Amino acid sequence: MNIFRLAGDMTHLASVLVLLLKIHTIKSCAGVSLKTQELYAIVFATRYLDIFTSFYSIYNTLMKLIFLGSSFSIVWYMRYHKTVRRTYDREQDTFRHWFLVLPCLLLALLIHEKFTFLEVLWTFSLYLEAVAILPQLVLLQRTRNIDNLTGQYVFLLGGYRGFYILNWIYRYLTEPHFVHWITWIAGLVQTLLYADFFYYYFQSWKNNKKLQLPA
Amino acid sequence: PKDRSTKDEL
Q1: Transmembrane stretches, by residue range (chain A) (predicted)?
Q2: Cα distances (Å, whole numbers) of residue A81 to A16, A38, A65
C-alpha cells in the first residue's frame, strides 16, 4: 500500500458516499445516470469475484464489501425506492450502456493476462470501468444544470483513478517486474475521459460560477 | 502468496 493508492481509495470511497448522501438525504437522484450506476455494479461484481477465494487484508475485503454494497444499493434506490425513483429522469438517461458491455467482454476475451474465468471477468471489469462514466457524462451534458453534489461525485470519481495512475508509477519504480499494461492503459483511458469535465469543473470553481458543460 | 499482480488493488 502506498499513499497514492490510499488517496485513490479514499477519493473513490468519498465519491460513493457523496452520492449515497445525496440520494438518502434529499431523496433525489436528479442528474444521476442509472446506467452508469448499473455499469459500476457490474464492474464491482466482476472485479471482486475473488473476495471469497483470496484474502489480502481486512482493508481490502472491507473496501470491496463497501463498494459492492454501495453500488448495488444506489441501483436499488434509483430503481425501486418509491420517492427516489420518481426523480430519475428516464428520458434523458438514454445511453445504450449495453453497447459498452459487449465490446468490453469481447475485448477481455481477446486481450487478458491469463485465459481463466476469473481473469477474463476481472479484465472485463477493468475495461468496463474505463467507460462506465460515459452515460453520466452524456447526461450531464444534456441536463446542463449540474447540482453541486453530482458535480462533486463525478469529480471525485474521476480523481480516484488519477491517484491510481500515480500508484502504478510508484509501484513500477519500486517493485521489480511490476508491469501491467492492461491495467495501466484502461486506467489512463478512464482518466482521460474525465479530462473535459475536469476542465469545465475547474473553470466553474475558479470563476465561482455554476458548472455548465457545453452542449 | 502476494502475487505481483494488481489483484491486491481495489
Answers
A1: 55-77, 98-115, 121-140, 152-170, 182-202
A2: 18, 15, 22
pLDDT over 50 (residue B1): no
Q: Left (φ > 0), alpha (ψ -120 to 50) or beta: where does A89 sit?
A: beta
Nearest-angstrom CA–CA distance, A197 and A161: 14
The span from the CA of A105 to the CA of A120, in Å, is 8
Q: pLDDT per residue over A71-118, tens digit each?
A: 999 999 999 999 999 999 999 999 999 999 999 999 999 999 999 999
**ipTM, two decimals:** 0.85
Contacting B residues, span 1-10, partner chain A, CB-CB under 8 Å: 2, 4-10
